[in-house]
Amino acid sequence: MLVWIIYDIEKDKIRSKVAAQCKGYGLIRVQKSVFLGTLNNNEIDEIHLKCKELMDVKKDSIYIFPMCEEDFKKVKLLGQAFDKKMVKDEVLAKFF
């Protein structure tokens, strides 16, 4: 299942650890605080628990959005939707 992970985390160290978790699950950074990729339900649950342990729940926000392929194809991109330096061609191919 396609998954977006979007976060707003106050401390650099925690933000870096959350980004490392995302990368560890094979997610691709599409913007500084946005990752996209494919995870199964168990992996979604795992990354949810790992990120929850890292974050300060009173200050930080992490959003995990599972999305089916059909809905993903309906996503509208406006302006510079992806940071071209961070996004690989295979992600862009899903949109075009």
Q: Notable features of this structure?
A:
96 residues, four-stranded antiparallel sheet, Alpha-Beta Plaits
What does this structure look like?
By secondary structure, the chain is an alpha+beta fold. It has one domain (2-95): Alpha-Beta Plaits, CATH 3.30.70. It has helices spanning 12-24, 41-54, 69-72, 89-95; strands at 2-8, 28-31, 34-38, 61-67. A four-stranded antiparallel beta sheet has the order 2-3-1-4. The model has no long low-confidence stretch (mean pLDDT 86).
Number of strands: 4
Number of domains: 1
CATH architecture label name: 2-Layer Sandwich
For the record, what CATH class applies? Alpha Beta
Rg of Cα set:
13 Å
Helix count? 4
Order of helices and strands: EHEEHEHH
Helix and strand topology:
Blueprint: E1 2-8, H1 12-24, E2 28-31, E3 34-38, H2 41-54, E4 61-67, H3 69-72, H4 89-95
Antiparallel strand pairs: 1-3, 1-4, 2-3
Helix pairs in contact: 1-2
